[in-house]
Specification:
Oligomer: single chain
Enzyme class: transferase
CATH architecture of the largest domain: 3-Layer(aba) Sandwich
Order of helices and strands: HHEHHEHEHEHEHHHHHHHHH
Pfam family, one: DNA_pol3_delta2
GO molecular function: 3'-5' exonuclease activity; DNA-directed DNA polymerase activity
EC number: 2.7.7.7
CATH superfamily of the largest domain: P-loop containing nucleotide triphosphate hydrolases
Protein name: DNA polymerase III subunit delta
Strand order of the largest sheet: 2-3-4-1-5
Number of helices: 16
Distance between the termini: 47 Å
Structural class: alpha/beta
Radius of gyration: 25 Å
Number of strands: 5
Length: 335
């Protein structure tokens, strides 16, 4: 994401509306806390907001032009009145906050406003957090703080009380899919991944994994075996499935993929083919869906969800999958 106002509004409309109103109504707070999962646009929003506050020629009074000197220098990270603090190693140290305070005690180099962004604000040491608290308790009228965190529960309540908190919602599957395709991921793979994670960055990592590409083939093959020759399903588990899904997290991902197949069959029965994830299997799935009742499909999806729950409670993975296969082939009415 390049981080334009329009792009961010598409994925975080409520946040961008609040920031727009704070600018147009001249009610910019002295401190904001952007909180939400990784990959939800917090860092990009902080950058765009900083440009909006310092842009020389804002569009419609609030959007950065991205053409003026201030916008370009903020984008490149070398504006003298815009600072960023990130963890050094595992934490943000007291010295980093102290240096920031000293920098901000000096008069603004060019403008009346100074902006600082603290990334992973939850990783401040106790001493750093206390130093920042003093900074927030006596805010300068020309200073705007933008704190960002994925772990709001780790933040000091006294700091939270001095910030305007803006929650960043997980990305919708449509947004994740769109962004993955924009980054070169094929549409089919992007559709599947968008059902597995709200995190674009994680989705991009998954798309590059050879393991994941192979996982999809193995899951689809298990489904085919269950459909055509249920008695061979247990053999297939030992010949291929367990060789690929070795770790608990991998097995959980495999169960997610299997669930999506049965969900696709249900979408077809409900005449919602546009929602089918495995569009490349649509023709095959349509014929399969004719031979299953909605009750049977619901039962099979329930078996998979129950297997996921048992997996998290340390049930033996091999026994779990063997039982799931037996449950899925019971009452199968594929013809």
């Amino acid at each position: 994401m390049t981080g334009t106002w329009q792009e961010l509004k598409a994925i975080q409309p409520e946040v961008m509306t609040m920031l727009k109103n704070s600018i147009t109504k001249d009610r910019v707070a002295h401190a904001y806390l952007f909180e939400g999962e990784k990959g939800t646009g917090k860092r990009e929003t902080g950058l765009v907001f900083a440009k909006s506050l310092l842009c020389k020629h804002p569009v419609d009074g609030y959007q950065p032009c991205n053409e003026c000197l201030n916008c370009k220098r903020i984008t490149s990270g070398n504006h003298p009145d815009v600072h960023i603090v990130e963890p050094e190693g595992l934490s943000i140290k007291k010295e980093q906050i102290k240096n920031l305070q000293e920098e901000f005690s000096m008069k603004s180099v060019e403008l009346n406003r100074k902006i600082y962004r603290i990334v992973h604000a939850d990783k401040m040491s106790i001493q750093a957090a206390n130093s920042l608290l003093k900074f927030l308790e006596e805010p300068q009228s020309d200073t705007v703080a933008i704190l960002m965190t994925e772990q709001i529960q780790r933040m000091l309540p006294t700091i939270l009380s001095r910030c305007q908190i803006l929650p960043f919602k997980p990305l919708s599957p449509e947004n994740v899919k769109k962004r993955l395709i924009e980054h070169g991921v094929d549409g089919q793979t992007a559709s599947v991944i968008s059902m597995l994670t709200h995190n674009f960055d994680e989705g991009l990592e998954i798309s590059a994994e050879e393991w994941f590409a192979q996982a999809q083939k193995i899951v689809l093959k298990l489904y085919e075996v269950l459909k055509t020759n249920p008695m061979k399903a247990l053999v297939y588990l030992h010949e291929e499935w367990f060789l690929h899904f070795k770790e608990k997290e991998q097995l959980d991902r495999g169960l997610d993929l299997l669930f999506l197949i049965y969900k696709d069959l249900l979408y077809i029965q409900l005449d919602k083919r546009n929602l089918v994830i495995f569009q490349n299997k649509l023709g095959e799935f349509e014929s399969h869906a004719l031979h299953l009742s909605q009750r049977s499909l619901a039962d099979k999806m329930g078996f998979i969800l129950e297997a996921k729950r048992k997996l998290m409670s340390n049930t033996n993975p091999q026994l779990l999958m063997e039982q799931l296969v037996l449950n899925l082939q019971e009452g199968s009415s594929f013809v």
